[in-house]
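Table 4 source record.
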Amino acid sequence: MFSWFKKKPKAPPAPPPSTPAAMEKPPEMIRGKVAFQNGERSWTEEFDIVAALETILTQREFEFARDGNALRLNISGYELRPIMIAFRPLDRGGSSTTSIVRVSHNEMLPEGLFEYQHSTGETIEKSLAAGLEQWANLDLPVLLDAAQPKPSACMAMHMTREKSDEHLPLHRRVLFGPVGHLMTQPPAAVENEEHPYCACCLFTRSIES
């Protein structure tokens, strides 16, 4: 079992019947202290997801400025807001966390976008760091290249639409970012495979949908 070492705010009123449950906003956790207890011992853990992202950006030699719970990258102008959405203790020790990094830009992404990070670690702090490392390896390179006239980390493809497809932009640039694999049971080797699955395959095999 676990609990927060701070006074919890009153629960918000239930939404009216016409409001779908999917529209409810999930809780957002930035920093805090969590108490755990099992049959052998009790302990506490502290976490600060903004500080964890600061550490990762510093290790990668990014220049940025902190504004409250947001980090603004000097190189691109992106504003990064990391948030922990959920956590749970694991039966064999450690914790599992779900987090996001909400990314916005005054011109390119005024409404922002985000991607979920699901990770595990010996502690909540280490699990969050593992998820943020995933984001820095897979998502951040694409976001940085999208803000530049010429990509430096990702392979790119330029597309020009047919005149009949007026609902599509005339020109598009597709960035192929790093690909992550997660397989509990890897398939057997495929004979005569042209090359291992890559970002280009991911795009070309799903473009029709």
